Amino acid sequence: MSSENSASDKFKRITISIDVVNERLVQSLEGIKGTSKSKVINNIIEEWIEQNADKIMSMWEIDLIGLRKIAQTTYKGITIDNDLQVLEKDLFNQMVEMFKGISSIDINDAAEFLKVHVESIKKIVFFHNPKLKNAGVELIYQDGKLINKKLI
Fold first, then answer.
1. Is 139 in contact with 146 (CB distance < 8 Å)?
2. Contact criterion met (CB below 8 Å) for 85 and 128
3. Is the dihedral of CA 41, 43, 46, 47 positive or negative?
4. Full-model pTM
5. Where are the domains of the chain?
6. Which fold, 86-151?
7. What's the rounded Cα separation, in Å, for the pair 110 and 104?
8. Distant-in-sequence, close-in-space partners of 151: CB < 8 Å, separation ≥ 6
9. In terms of CB atoms within 10 Å, which end of the chain has fewer, N or C?
10. Per residue in 22-55, pLDDT tens?
11. What's the distance, Cα to Cα, between the start and end of the chain in Å?
12. Rounded CA gap, 118 and 108, in Å?
């Protein structure tokens, strides 16, 4: 019996609540990733979203570009800059590829196909048209349609 007890003592399972681990992790990151618990958690979430943007957009069909714009204009009062952001570069490249083979498409159909908001497409067409031309796509927006002048 004593040998059974010593063997089971040797392999005892220790369980700990994940909340305790999370709490200690956040406390350890204070001062490294932020000055408070909430700032640490916010920074971790921001990094995760940035690293998993493609997965978020494809799996859950969430338009991060459109959400970012809404948040900036509505909550922070920040005007949206005209430089392409990381996610907009992906959309820009997708649009260039898409319009190499079609002459026109309804903007709502394009947004649905690309899984983004219409405003995200409009921003690229309105503010980055010279970049589109340099990439070989000459888009115009007319009557709710995106038209590639090079294929007409």
1. yes
2. no
3. negative
4. 0.48
5. 2-76, 86-151
6. Arc Repressor Mutant, subunit A (1.10.10)
7. 10
8. 99, 102, 103
9. N
10. 888 889 998 888 888 889 898 898 888 888 877 8
11. 89
12. 6
